[in-house]
Amino acid sequence: MTESYFTISFHHNGLDYKGRVSPEKKDADGKFISWHVVLNEIFFGYLSRVGGGWSCTEWRPDELVAIVGEQIAHHEEAK
Description:
single chain, alpha+beta, 5 strands
């Protein structure tokens, strides 16, 4: 069975964040390159790897996008 989503949680600027991340698109090598993110029950956006950083389809603070991206990268590395 393939995983449909995984959870993330972190603390930033005095707030606790909890979310669900669903892998969406794969590259030609079969690695995920895009993830659907819901954070604190609000659609955060689709995150994609861009070079050494992260991009989001919705306007979100760069620092928050980077933190969510780090959470995704950590999960992917742990697999």
